[in-house]
Amino acid sequence: MSLEVESMYNILVCDDEKDIVNALDIYLKSEGYNTILAYNGAEAFEKVQSEEIHLVLMDIMMPVLDGITAMVKIREFSNIPVILLTAKGEDTDKILGLNVGADDYVTKPFNPVELMARVKSQLRRYLMLGGGKVSSQNIQIGGIELDDTSKKVTVDGEKVSLTPTEYDILRLLMQNPDKVFSPREIYVKVWKDDPYGAESTVAVHIRHLREKIEINPAEPRYLKVVWGQGYKIERGVR
Amino acid sequence: MNLKSNFIVKCIAIVLFAVFLTTTLLSSACIIFGIGSGAFETETEQKEYKKEILESMLWYPASSIRRDLKGFAELEDIPYDHYNIYHSENVLYEIKNVEGKVIYSNLDGTEGEIHIYDEYTFSFLKEEYKNQAIPTDELYEETTTLEYEMGGNEFVTDVEVVLQPNDKYYEEKNYSVDIYLKENLTANDTFYYASELFDYVAKYKTIFTPITIISAIVSLVLFIFLMCVSGHKEGVKDIHISRFDRFPIDFLSVVYIGLTVLLGCGIFWVFKTVLYDMTQYHYDVTLGVGIPFLVGFCIVGVVLDFALFAILSMTTAVRLKTRTFIKSTLIFMVLKFVFNFLKWNWKNICKICRKSVDFTGRMLRKIPLVWKTILIVVAILFSEFVILGIIDWGYFWPAVWILNVILGVAIIFVAILLKDIKKGTEEIAKGNIYKKIDTKYMFLDIKDHAENINNINDGIAKAVAEQMKSERFKTELITNVSHDIKTPLTSIINYVDLLEKEEINNETAKEYIDVLTRQSSRLKKLIEDLLEASKASTGNISVNFSQFELGILLAQALGEYEECFAKNNLQVVINKTNEKLLVMADSRHMWRIFDNIMNNIAKYAQPNTRVYIDVICKNNNAEISFRNISKDALNISGDELMERFVRGDSSRNTEGSGLGLSIAKSLTEVQKGKLDIKIDGDLFKVRLAFPISE
């Protein structure tokens, strides 16, 4: 995956706010992507049908056709990654968007760097679909791949360097996806020691790990905090 | 030798007190007797008084003669010198019948010589059974229970019917008795002793008064002395309370009063035995042993009684001195026990009472309204029937009954209508505000009442609709405003970012762009906080309650903030209970609360100080308190700090919206918890409390 290949990707940007479209255009172009611009849902839908699009960045509240409806229509014939980019920041909005077919959900006002990272991540995942081999030593959940023979971890194809403790924690959580481990359990299993008063040590390591494997550690996609109970890695992650 | 605490001195004082008090009593009794009998008067007057006293005493032999006369049917048959007029040897008498004929006299030979006193005449009736044939129907039956002895066993069984004649067969007979007393009382009889006593009192009348006064003063002094020394004991500095002084005082008093009454009865009995019963048969013994014994018994008894009184007074004094008088009473002990019993079992007693009241209420509620009314009406009519049945209503009976039945039916009909209204209001209370009461069969005031309820219902329905509309409006407003502000803000942030990336040679312009970057990101944070605060405070926020462990959440939050605290050189000290504190709350909101509080600490705590976090369980609440030293002086109260947009630093230069604590408070309240802030100088304390779930 080199930059030359990436430059061939066409990204559809759709928002009724022209200034935002322009700004996104500038960012995406500076990253080397081709952009196709649209200003409402209907327009976006036409563009997806008529041109070869690799990723869609779309607002929800738009005139003529709103983002959710447009996405549902796109999903009828295509499985290209769709990132919703919206001012609607409620949990219910996020859940609805992700459930009806969005691959990611970014709220306005967004951090341009984070958005670019997410675009990159989605594109890699889209490319890697069906191409990844899962051997017995390899555990793959979402974009994270853990190779236990070489002790290597990659996130969306990019190598991540972890300390041995972080690696052990990640492996424990990935071997038992969706299971919530309390800090105490993690301490006993990774440190193999009496956990008395050690819960916050685990929390510190988890935070470091999250900073390494997540695009936005404040809104983790993989390593979730279950407050008051523990930590888990979610399998059903996009 | 300490007089106060010497035991022997006290004993002697008690005995002396009793003796002197008895002396006072006796001599004052003598004074009273002397005054009463005239012993203190002049000699001539004394004679008169003495005569009067002796004369009044003649009633005793006279009544004795009367009793004997009644016992004989025919007086003339009896040799009358047989009369027992005991210890009245100085009395002379003469019995006469109606005609004035002397039947008996013992004046023979003594007349003119000895009897000086005027004659004492005593007349009475003699009732006698007429000696004639009585017709059987004039007799009445009298049953008598016989008691008799046979072979040492007593029997109380046999009943005998005795035929008694009626009253009219009695005949009245009158006798008169003249009684005289010798002037020189030669024999040692009652009259002699009475005369002697009178003379004795008259002779010594001058010394009784000083004896009374002196012994009264002495006994009073002794009493005061005893009161003062009570409670003092050798080698004990304060008032000493002996075991006896702890014994219930009221019980002791009752025992003392009982003993005194017993003594009184004893004295009375001894008096009766010695002066009355014994003298009837053993006159010599009475004089030789009886009277000395009587006097001795009385004096010893009274002295002992007074000694007991002194002891009782002393223990009372000890109790009063140590203020334990009321506490040492049996009544107080019993009341205290009862009170304590009630106190310890108060909850249970209350529970039982409440339960029984509840139970009765439930039972009564279970009976439907109409049936309840019927029951009451029938009960009232029945009792009316019973009570008024006693009075004779005559022709009004049917009218009264018809009216009563009409009244009952009317009441039951009203109850049926009330039941409809009750059903309607129950529905409304359940929340079915669109329910209407059917007023078709109702009339007059009941109809008005039902219609009023229907109107209220309409009002409530309208108000609820309004409320729902305004709630929806509020929610929409927040979401829309949020969207409308966020869209232009996104553009601003993005273009400022783009500007920053442009190659600009102008240093001033670069500076300006820096300001724009900084301020736009601050605006972004402010708007996010503002929206969250308004959502949390209006309750437009979904709360998913679940059970989780507070300790783990705290550890997780500390993990998140470890580096932040380390950067500011803040040392965290945690005091945590070993208990598992499970709470029912929304863990994500809870994290937000911790996040805001810890962020606040990181921002405003004085670097190089310690932050204390305590987790305790108190009153079934999980309490977490955060304490830190503020960087800046805080001139406002904790409550003010929780207001929106209030910040500890008046310059407001630091980053932050001033909404963090307000959001934390709102979120805490949404989760049924409590958050309060206390400021004590530079000490800043946040206390969180959540109910523990089981």
Describe the protein's topology.
The complex is a heterodimer of chains A (238) and B (694).
Chain A: H1 3-6, E1 10-14, H2 18-31, E2 34-38, H3 41-50, E3 55-58, H4 67-75, E4 82-86, H5 91-99, E5 104-107, H6 112-128, E6 138-141, E7 144-147, E8 152-155, E9 158-160, H7 164-175, H8 183-190, H9 199-213, E10 223-226, E11 230-233
Parallel strand pairs in A: 1-2, 1-3, 3-4, 4-5
Antiparallel strand pairs in A: 6-7, 7-8, 8-9, 10-11
Chain B: H1 7-37, H2 43-57, H3 59-70, E1 91-97, E2 102-105, E3 120-129, E4 139-145, E5 148-150, E6 153-155, E7 159-165, E8 170-181, H4 190-203, H5 205-229, H6 243-246, H7 249-281, H8 283-321, H9 330-344, H10 346-366, H11 369-388, H12 397-430, H13 444-501, H14 507-538, E9 546-549, H15 550-567, E10 571-576, E11 582-585, H16 587-604, E12 610-618, E13 621-629, H17 638-641, H18 660-670, E14 674-680, E15 683-691
Parallel strand pairs in B: 10-12
Antiparallel strand pairs in B: 1-2, 1-8, 3-8, 4-7, 5-6, 9-11, 12-13, 13-15, 14-15
Task: Give a verbal description of the structure.
The complex is a heterodimer of chains A (238) and B (694). Chain A has 238 residues and is an alpha/beta fold. Helix content of chain A is 41%, strand content 19%. Chain A has two domains: 3-128, 3-Layer(aba) Sandwich (Rossmann fold); 138-233, Orthogonal Bundle (Arc Repressor Mutant, subunit A). Chain A contains nine helices and eleven strands. In chain A, a hairpin with a 2-residue loop joins strand 8 (152-155) and strand 9. In chain A, helix 3 runs parallel beside helix 4 (67-75) and helix 7 packs across helix 9. The model of chain A is unreliable at 1-6 (pLDDT under 50). Chain B has 694 residues and is α+β, with helices and mostly antiparallel strands. Chain B is 58% helix and 15% strand. In chain B, strand 5 and strand 6 form a beta hairpin. Chain B has helices spanning 7-37, 43-57, 59-70, 190-203, 205-229, 243-246, 249-281, 283-321, 330-344, 346-366, 369-388, 397-430, 444-501, 507-538, 550-567, 587-604, 638-641, 660-670; strands spanning 91-97, 102-105, 120-129, 139-145, 148-150, 153-155, 159-165, 170-181, 546-549, 571-576, 582-585, 610-618, 621-629, 674-680, 683-691. Among the domains of chain B are: 374-430; 543-691, Heat Shock Protein 90 (2-Layer Sandwich). In chain B, the strands form five sheets. In chain B, strands 10-12-13-15-14 form a five-stranded mixed β-sheet. The two termini of chain B are 73 Å apart. In chain B, helix 7 runs antiparallel to helix 8 (283-321) and helix 16 packs antiparallel against helix 18. Chain A binds chain B through residues 17, 19-20, 23-24, 26-27, 30, 61, 87-92, 107-110, 112, 182-184, 199-207, 225-230, and chain B through 479, 482-483, 486-487, 489-491, 493-495, 497-498, 501, 524, 542, 548-553, 555-560, 562-563, 583, 587-588, 590-591.
